[in-house]
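Homework help thread (please don't just give me the answer)

Our assignment gives two proteins as sequence + structure token strings and asks us to describe the second one. The first is just a warm-up. Here they are:
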Amino acid sequence: MIRDRLLCCAFALFLAVLLTSLPLFAQKITGDISGTVQDSTGAVVKDATITAKNIGTGETRSAKSSDAGFYRIVELPPGKYTVTVSVKGFKTATRAAEVAIRRTTGYRPPQQRT
């Protein structure tokens, strides 16, 4: 009887600890960079290559803009980045960006024709 009660309490305690720790696993420790690539007239630019380079580590991640000009580079470690946008027929655009935990850094690079 006492053994059954102890076993039941131990199981209930285990279950309580497990359920209260689940939100810890859902915490995001990275950030994203996203935006829409447009030319100087405001028209979207598709198939542009967007590269984010972490200044501290040198790690690079890239994405391509969609038919709507949208791009998103996800799961970036927090830090300072150099974001470069290049596409054939346009000048390359570069700027600094900072990625923070659980944040999306917006960047809408203006593209000028070469």
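The one we have to describe:
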Amino acid sequence: MQRFLWAILAHRKGQLARDILDARLQDYDLVLVEWNDELNARLAIVGAYFGGDLRDFLDRIVYEAFKNAGQHLESLYRASVDQQVPELDPAEVEETQTKLDV
């Protein structure tokens, strides 16, 4: 996620070509597919070893935070490649960076 964010910001500043940005998007998508494929298995293992409370915390708090950060990343990507948007919203960039630093 962090590499994708760096690529988005660099692209917007004119420091990274669009094809490299799109390659970072593909990398992000591959990781996301693998993450989602394994999600239920990880939750089941945590639930079996550590109980339902920790499983629920992981599902409702930790995974939701990653989901939210991913939504912000995708929004920034769309804004970055949209020529009609003059600049990325600094508040959204900062919020996304904060979410990824957790």
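TA reply:
I won't write it for you, but here's a hint about the kind of observation we're looking for: The chain has one domain: 2-100.
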